[in-house]
Amino acid sequence: MSRLSRKGLKEDLAAEQSEDRHDRMEEACGVFGIFAPGEDLFRLSCFALFALQHRGQESAGIAVSDGKTIHLKKGVGLVSEVFTDLEAMKNKPTVAAVSHVRYSTSGGSRPENAQPLLIEYRHGSLAVVHNGNLINALELREFLEDRGSIFQTTTDSELVAHLIARYGYRDLEASLTSALPHLRGAYNFLFLAENSLVGVRDPYGIHPLSLGKWKGHYVLASETCAFDTIGAEMIRDIEPGEMVIIDENGLTSKQALPSQRLALCVFEYIYFARPDSNIHGKNVHLVRKELGRRLAREHPAQADLVTGVPDSSLSAASGFAEELGIPYEMGMIKNKYIGRTFIQPNQKIRSLGVQLKLNPIYKVVEGKSVVVVDDSIVRGTTSQKLVNMFFRAGAREVHLRISSPPVISPCYYGIYTPTYEELIGSSRAVEEIREQIGATSLGYLGYQNMIESAGLTESELCTACFSGHYPISSKGRENYDEIRRL
Asked: On the chain, which terminus has fewer CB atoms closer than 10 Å, C or N?
């Protein structure tokens, strides 16, 4: 890698090390694509991105093709901040579109890293959106730079565009068939050419990608909640290693890479996905309720009320309360208008971050023994603040229950987690964690209960952050670790 590239990655990753930002398992990105000639695809894509906003709140972008030219609009911020004038694109002829909301796991949140990425090569224009992370990104980047490639971004999503241009077949499908075997890691890619849309899922299917239909036209999205928002019908999940080509002839499917096995990220069910989404036939809300029920059986508590941490833990909290027959209450309120782009200029302001987003309802918790259900503990700093918040609100006891096992290992597949040393669950026993965060009691859901709640077999899930067992060969992971250490 060139000195300039290393410097850029170092600056980006240094900017990502905020304690508050990475005390959660941060979302993957969200992608949406549609082939529907003659429709208002810019506006439709914008609506779909609103539905996927929870998967990325750093940047948003839409690329639309009119059959001859690809037009791009993207920027840093929430969807509502980037797309302030929907009327500007109204009535413009469009054939197909891809769109993206981003949370950076590699490459940082620089404006040029916002997607879609638009490239020009010998056979025209190509817009690319990506959800996931390539664990051999550094290796590929060095290979391409040594052969003359010049990168405009520090994101690994640009690598596949350079590989496509390098192979240079007139047919995009042929270029992708040659390029994809070089990629190792987790990815959902959508590619927009002037008159076609192509979607690809990695051979392990680590992140979800679904196929739907809207007014007879095919659509692709990270989650089915995007289909619901625009009135599309869910057809099926894209299979691991599958490539779908959508153009004027309809939809063509091929197995671009041999499917290794389904290894769906279990955290999609626990935290990332919206509760109204369905992933591989399982409704996320119902899975989370089952997580809560099993958590209650495993770690019951004598308490006056149960509350969840908005929004991802509410389903699990309701299941916990139902199982034990304890009243479920709205114990805290989330400020929905504080985005991830909120600037925290100094430590004194950063320390107020949790209070800005969450506030307990004093009259509900005062003098009560409270069970607080959350989805995970990463570093422990946010959990400590939550517990302190309830005690300051007058709670007599705060019993913390976690609807997943301890997080013991980093993720390399498109979800930012801290290093082993920073993960509180990798080096401390449960009682030590309880003492550090100050809870009256602490209970984690057992590993097997998590698997059974998801309704898939252990071999169909990626549980690396809980087990340390990675579905993809560790070869190349050292390179990803090197990027994070720069």
From this structure: C
99 neighbors 49 (Cβ within 8 angstroms): yes
What is the C-alpha to C-alpha distance for residues 400 and 107, in angstroms, rounded to an integer?
35
Least trusted range by pLDDT, from 5-9, 112-116, 187-191, 227-231: 5-9
Over residues 342-351, the pLDDT tens digits come to 334 444 554 5
Lowest mean pLDDT among 102-116, 159-173, 197-211: 102-116
Pull the structure tokens for residue 67.
Answer: 């059959």
Please tell me the distance from the alpha carbon of residue 161 to that of residue 179, in angstroms, as a whole number. Answer: 9
Beta strands 124-134 and 185-193 are antiparallel
CB 447 within 8 A of CB 220: no
C-alpha 296/C-alpha 151 separation (Å) is: 51
Tell which residue, 354, 336, 390, 416, has the closest CA to residue 105: 416
Give the span between the Cα atoms of 107 and 13, in whole angstroms.
Answer: 7
Q: From CA 426, how far away is CA 429, in angstroms rounded?
A: 8
Burial class (CB in 10 A: 0-12, 13-18, 19+), 69: exposed
> Reduced to 3 states, what is the DSSP secondary structure of residue 409?
coil
Residue with the two structure tokens 């995970």: 376
- Rounded Cα gap, residues 307 and 290, in angstroms: 16
Lowest mean pLDDT among 137-141, 267-271, 336-340: 336-340
Comparison of pLDDT for 165 and 301, the residue scoring more: 301
Token pair in block for residue 136: 């051999």
Query: 29, 225, 265, 462: which is the annotated catalytic residue?
Result: 29
What residues have CB less than 8 Å from 92, skipping those under 6 apart?
A: 42, 64, 66, 71
Whether residue 353 has pLDDT greater than 70: no
Q: State how far the alpha carbon of 365 is from the alpha carbons of 113, 292, 296, 357, 381, in Å.
A: 44, 20, 20, 18, 22
- Strand, helix or coil for residue 141: helix
User: Does residue 190 contact residue 176 with C-beta atoms inside 8 Å?
Assistant: no
Can you give 36-68 as a three-state secondary structure string?
CCCCCHHHHHHHHHHHCHHHCCCEEEEEEECCC
**All domains of the chain in start order, with CATH:** 3-263 (3.60.20.10), 279-470 (3.40.50.2020)
Alpha-helical regions (H) of 53-188: 79-82, 137-146, 157-167, 172-179
126 DSSP β-pair partners? 119
Q: Phi/psi of residue 10, each to 5°? A: -65, -45
Please indicate whether residue 29 is annotated as part of the active site: yes
The whole-angstrom separation of Cα 184 and Cα 205 is: 12
Contact 437, 400 (CB under 8 A): yes
Between helix 314-324 and helix 284-298 the angle, nearest 10°, is 50
Neighbours of 298 (CB within 10 A): 13
Give the list of residues 6+ apart from residue 1 with CB closer than 8 angstroms, or none: 9, 138, 141, 142, 145
